[in-house]
Amino acid sequence: MSRPILEVIALGAEDAAAAQAGGADRLELVSDMAADGLTPARETFAAVRAAVDIPVRVMLRATDGFAAGGAAALEALCGTARALRAEGAEEFVLGFLTDDGRADLPAVAALADAVGPRARWTFHRAIDRAADRDALRKQLADQPGLDTYLTAGSASGVDDGLATLLTEATRSDEPGYEPRIMVGGGLKLKHVPVLRTAGITAFHIGGAARPSGWDSPVSADAVRAWREALDG
Fold first, then answer.
1. Cα 155–160–161 angle (5° rounding)?
2. What is the C-alpha separation between 107 and 70, in angstroms, rounded?
3. Is the alpha carbon torsion for 67, 127, 25, 222 positive or negative?
4. Which string of DSSP letters, residue by residue, matches 10-35?
């Protein structure tokens, strides 16, 4: 099996450098984890980009929750996305739902257009709150740039979503299932062997990279333990 991707949440350049030192392959750059991760400042992206040479996926999300907000809020977020693109960001994380749990296609399409057709992006754990996961994947099947779903298989985490993840891993040749599954959200080291055996090749950690909590920086040693487990 190919070397799996390890993505680590970073809040700034110090986190980014520690994650790379520990063996991370990619960063998810966010701000405000009290709101589960919002869009970082353009200056923060620039500092992170200068500090590391691994890919950085930048969160596009202005408020807690999975609603894009009204037209003005969406246009403001698209403006932020364009500014980050101009700063050099090439990879992003986004995902919005309608009130009835479907993919918010107008919002997703507007942001995909804002970042441009060459940008790659992840649809984040909004999929775990969708009314119908399969329908959401098919809604998004033609969106340019979508190459990854960040998912725990369940809104409550990998412990409850494991069976769903294993089933979806067998469907990679079906329409809507071509994007890579990146497992994150309550992911534990104990989950790794069964996920790897199922052919899942991408893993995402946040709190697991910070043994002292979110008020402390990423630990290179903690990241290294995950790197070794994934490669083992």
1. 70
2. 10
3. positive
4. ESSHHHHHHHHHHT-SEEEE-B-GGG
Mean pLDDT rounded to a whole number for the chain: 97
* pLDDT at residue number 2: 73
pLDDT in tens, 40-83: 999 999 999 999 999 999 999 999 999 999 999 999 999 999 99
DSSP 117: T
Beta strands in the chain (DSSP E): 5-10, 26-29, 56-59, 91-94, 120-123, 146-151, 180-183, 202-205
Cα 213 to chain center, whole Å? 20
Amino acid 108: pLDDT = 97
**Which letter does DSSP use for residue 114 in this model?**
H
DSSP 149-184: EEE-SSTT-HHHHHHHHHHHHTTTTSTT--SEEEE-
Q: Which two tokens stand for residue 205?
A: 């950690």
Residue type, position 102, single letter: R
Distance CA 57, CA 128 (A): 20
Asked if 27 and 52 count as a contact pair (C-beta separation under 8 A), the reply is yes
Show the tokens assigned to 3: 């070397």
Tell me the CA distances in angstroms from 186 to 158, 195, 203, 207, 226, one per residue in order. Answer: 5, 14, 11, 9, 14
Identify the band that residue 1 occupies on the pLDDT scale cut at 50, 70 and 90. Answer: very low
Collapse the DSSP code of 146 into the 3-class scheme (helix H, G, I; strand E, B; otherwise coil) and give the result.
Answer: strand
Q: How far apart are CA 220 and CA 105, in angstroms?
A: 38
- Residues linked to residue 121 through DSSP beta bridges, in sequence order: 92, 146
